[in-house]
Amino acid sequence: MKNDEDKQAITLISFLSNCLGFPTENPDFLGFLLNELRRFEASFNKYIADQVNQDAYGYEQKSFNLLSWLTEEKPISILDFNYTDHSFSRSEAMHVIYDRHIHGSIEDQPIIGIDQSMFPATDRKYEFSKTYRILDATKNLSNIS
User: 133 near 114, Cβ under 8 Å?
Assistant: First the structure.
């Protein structure tokens, strides 16, 4: 090992191999990290869904009341930064014209990503950008239908 960066790389690969099952033969580090991110998103999705399903604090009713108050029940479009789905947003009583979850939702899948300006679209690390991940999720959903 020539320098501290080499030592850090060896330590990281050893940790990933021992704790997370990172393959040491023919390693695809970015592919491995992307797969781990997807696993984290799935776990995060389950956690958020469990919290909403418990509804210990009357989440849906409170959300409905707040949205009614904010919009004065006039026709609206919603750009939502929350992961939860609102059954009331599809309700005619709310007059919702459009509802878009910018980070994904527990119904589809939460999407975690970095700013797309960090890497050019030709760089493989671009696959970690929010823009790429949203487009990829949309493509995957259209393939299912």
Answer: no
Q: pLDDT tens for residues 118-127?
A: 889 999 989 9
Paired with 56 in beta bridges are: none
DSSP letter at 132? Answer: H
**pTM score:** 0.67
3-state secondary structure 16-37: HHHHHCCCCCCCCHHHHHHHHH
Closest among 10, 40, 44 to 27, alpha carbons compared: 10
Torsion of CA 116, 122, 123, 125, to 10 degrees: 50
Is the CB of residue 35 less than 8 Å from the CB of residue 27? no
